[in-house]
Q: What sequence folds into this?
């Protein structure tokens, strides 16, 4: 299934996308959000599958991040060998590099990314996001995939000069990242290590990689992160970006107002956002 969240004149809701039509699960089930649906486990997913009414058409909806109330958004830094290699003198990290993003730093498909007025060094990173569906602590690598609800495209927008202050500073500017347009349940994705990730800036491909090129694979990430903190349904792990980021180009290629950045991953659709300048 393709699950998404959106705005309607009656307020925020969520649903199932089938073709170009959307079943409004907020209207038709007892689950007020996708996070609540995931917390209900198989019962929630079964309820979503059972509803087939065409309540909306996709072009008429303003999309939110698939999980606008995600409990935790966890980023992984330097997790593609190609991205490490493009940074002169860097070695692969000895452990996964973990950081967090706040919910208000992430927008949905079609919404504007804000280039902050505090910096000109606004960079792009296309990533595969992992959506947690089953809670767990100290998750064994062999059990990791059983804890995954699905996958989505993610833009880990980064403000590079502020990232030198702390990773948290550079990764959490208001409305600097994006997720969507939906997430696809794991049963429909198959092997997540065989997907192709492409990022485009104004139509030009700037990143191209296989999701199998991660330094720390998906089971390792779930094991490592769940050793630090319990993972819960609706948590998101953004698994890292490959080479091609703007800060490593000569000259650097920063996002500017009017730019359009896209992340496309096999079977997960295309996340598209335009850039505007922060006012004030």
A:
């Amino acid at each position: 299934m393709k699950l998404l969240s959106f705005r309607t004149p009656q307020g925020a809701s969520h649903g199932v996308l089938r073709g170009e039509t959307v079943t409004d699960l907020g209207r038709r089930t007892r689950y007020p959000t996708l996070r609540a649906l995931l917390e209900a486990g198989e019962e929630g997913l079964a309820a979503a599958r059972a509803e087939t009414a065409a309540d909306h058409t996709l072009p008429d909806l303003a999309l939110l991040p698939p999980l606008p109330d995600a409990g935790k958004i966890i980023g992984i830094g330097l997790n593609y060998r190609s991205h490490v290699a493009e940074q002169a003198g860097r070695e692969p990290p000895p452990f996964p590099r973990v950081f967090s993003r706040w919910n208000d730093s992430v927008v949905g498909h079609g919404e504007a990314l804000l280039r902050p007025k505090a910096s000109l060094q606004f960079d792009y990173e296309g990533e595969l996001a992992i959506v947690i569906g089953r809670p767990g602590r100290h998750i064994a690598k062999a059990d990791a995939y059983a804890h995954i609800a699905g996958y989505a495209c993610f833009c880990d927008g980064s403000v590079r000069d502020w990232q030198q202050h702390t990773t948290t500073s550079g990764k959490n500017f208001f409305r600097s990242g994006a997720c969507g347009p939906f997430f696809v349940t794991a049963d429909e994705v198959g092997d997540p290590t065989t997907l192709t990730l492409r990022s485009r800036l104004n139509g030009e491909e700037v990143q191209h990689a296989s999701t199998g090129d991660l330094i720390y694979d998906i089971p390792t990430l779930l094991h490592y992160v769940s050793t630090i903190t319990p993972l819960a349904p609706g948590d998101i792990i953004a698994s890292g970006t490959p080479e091609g980021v703007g800060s490593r180009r000569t000259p650097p290629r920063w996002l500017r107002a009017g730019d359009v950045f896209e992340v496309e991953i096999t079977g997960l659709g295309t996340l598209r956002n335009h850039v505007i300048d922060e006012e004030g």
Notes: The mean pLDDT is 97. The longest strand covers residues 177-185. The helical segments are 25-28, 34-39, 42-50, 81-85, 160-163, 167-171, 186-189, 218-228. The chain has two domains: 2-64, 73-277.
